[in-house]
Amino acid sequence: MLPVPSPLLLSSSILLLIASVGSVFTDTPNASPLVSYALPLVGVPGGGLLFLCAIRKGQRETEEDDEKFRGGG
């Protein structure tokens, strides 16, 4: 897992996914098609991976907090 807080992972995944999807629908004459299509090709899988990391890390942190609350650790 990445040594980053889970809320930061989640927010960065959301921003990356929004930028990736939004870049498909923009019609900017100054941007090259390579940039317009490379961002979704890299951003969607990357954003999905960050999202999964955030969910798994959040679950693990919750389990650790529950264990501390129950007095087991």
UniProtKB/TrEMBL annotation:
It comes from the Eukaryota. The chain crosses the membrane at residues 36-55. Keywords: Membrane, Signal, Transmembrane, Transmembrane helix. Residues 1-26 form the signal peptide. The keyword Transmembrane applies. This is Uncharacterized protein. It comes from Tetraparma gracilis.
